[in-house]
Amino acid sequence: MTTSSSTSAQSSRVQSFKGSCQCGAVRFELDLDPSAGTIRCNCTSCTKTGWWSAVVKPEAFRLVAGREALGDYSRSEASHARFCGTCGVRTFSHGNVPELGGAYYSVNLNCLDGANLTGIPVRYLDGRHDTWAELAQAPYVSPFSPMAHARA
To answer: Around Cβ 20, how many Cβ atoms within 10 Å?
Structure first.
């Protein structure tokens, strides 16, 4: 029974989210524990695409619509950055990297529809210099939230 209740407590933090590209052609669903943390990277790709990542196992990601609209920007077979061929928004990536625990999906949290992610942990990594060192960790505060304006 102890195992069951601890498993129940862990899975109770998992929430379902819906996301999409700007035009809505690509739509997905995601099961995610926001308290597990997210990643922002300063490499040129992440910086220029506004990428804010949560990594999940393939069974936690569901492409609901838009398979035919997806483009694929890949620099290797290990990772496929997927984007909407209509509006150009990079919504998710997927691949298989043993150092990340094998098969994965990485979702751009900026593409989640109506999600309040205030307070979830964000790890900032140095991808620009290929060190992947953690530069900082802080809870997310939306610059558009009333709380952010109250501090100004």
So the answer is: 20
As a whole number of angstroms, the distance between CA 115 and CA 65 comes to: 19
Q: What's the confidence (pLDDT) of residue 138?
A: 86
Question: What is the DSSP-derived secondary structure letter of residue 110?
Answer: G
* 111 CB burial (10 A radius; 0-12, 13-18, 19+): buried
Q: Tokens in use for 11?
A: 């899975």
Q: Is 1 exposed, middle or buried (0-12, 13-18, 19+ CB in 10 A)?
A: exposed
DSSP one-letter code for 112: B
Q: Please state the pTM of the whole predicted model.
A: 0.81
- Tokens at residue 21, please? 């590209």
Question: Token digits for 55?
Answer: 């990594």
Q: Give tens-digit pLDDT for 24-68.
A: 999 999 999 999 999 898 888 888 888 899 999 999 999 999 999
What strands lie across the sheet with 90-97, from one edge to the other? 70-76, 79-84, 90-97, 102-108, 52-56, 38-41, 121-125, 134-139
Those residues whose C-beta lies under 8 Å from the C-beta of residue 137, and which sit 6 or more positions away, are 121, 122, 123, 124
What is the spatial distance between Cα 148 and Cα 38, in angstroms, rounded to a whole number?
20
